[in-house]
Amino acid sequence: MTAAPTAGVILAGGTSSRMGRPKALVPFRGQPMVLHVAQALGAVVDDFLVVTNDPSLAANLAVPVVPDPPGAAGPLAGIAAGLDALDGRGAIVLACDMPLVEPHALTAILDLSEDHEAVVPRTDDGRLEPLHAFYGPACREAAWELVRRGERRAHALADAVRTLFVPTSDIDPSGASFTSVDTEEALARLG
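RE: above sequence
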């Protein structure tokens, strides 16, 4: 595990345009998707928060909610806001639309994080998973600097700090933890 205390950040901002409704609250196997993510995080870290642009989430969740920063958009701004709220701790950062994430996958990321500012999984075809990653305290300022320059993509943060890129198969051999549910069709496929 990491030497510094680690928390969790769930990103639930965005417009959910492909889903057509707020993804965080979409029912999946009997509960909102965000609660599946929260349960996996809660098994690995002591506390976590949700960063969102939807104030109604605070009323629907029993976890701390941090607003997306005004005037900034994209997942990078959500990561920056989440790290800001954690008082110098690093965080496992997850998107709210990954309801199959497993605690063992999060533990695998944390186990690799001690000597790196970030740990970001990468698929065999080179695609990064920056919304299923670890970002240490040093990433906070780097994230805000990128946001100030107009950057929105979380990938940019992985490129700006000392990042360990690790194969997704080393984190979760089944790959299920990386399943993103961002359309009604993807939701239907998972049942």
